[in-house]
């Protein structure tokens, strides 16, 4: 219920101020479990990605978002609950398996599961290598996978910017469902999981127009931070 209250309040405001656009909305099934696999450019994706859909989009978010204290912790919990985020432990190992089971439960209950295969926001607006969890979800659930590409949200609100820029229209493109039925029953094959994930990332590259980088976004961000520190030290 809270999700729809937030959407009813924010939706008209976002449409009026930012004039967001969408393509391919009809590619999203009107019922049943669906995986929306998207690129992740900006914090603004949480607002503009689901905006044009009449179905609720549930995403998996780190449990830290729901454990903060004080006023900031309260509003953080309120926000992520309002945008349909379910808390999970993302520390790896058994926690990763629990996250997978949570995602499968959401899909089997007939909901839309939104997932960002890159695992984190792009540090520079490019599209990075996807993690194979999305492939396991697709093959175990056998739910349709819809590529979900955000456009212009990086330019509007890059990482570190607290408020979005005006004058930039954010958009979202929903691609046609991807068919992975040829791989059903092969969810324990690492090569298959990589092939499925790469196909999803290629579809996102085609939809978004982003440059693709064959490394993980977390690794790229760490490299950029090290380079920035080295550059700062050299100037001293």
From TrEMBL:
The keyword Nucleotide-binding does not apply. It comes from the Bacteria. Its EC number is 2.3.1.-. GO terms for molecular function: acyltransferase activity. InterPro entries: Plipid/glycerol_acylTrfase. Residues 34-153 form the Phospholipid/glycerol acyltransferase domain. Keywords: Acyltransferase, Transferase. It is an enzyme of class 2 (transferase). The keyword Lyase does not apply. Pfam families: Acyltransferase. This is 1-acyl-sn-glycerol-3-phosphate acyltransferase. It comes from Nonomuraea coxensis DSM 45129. The gene is plsC1.
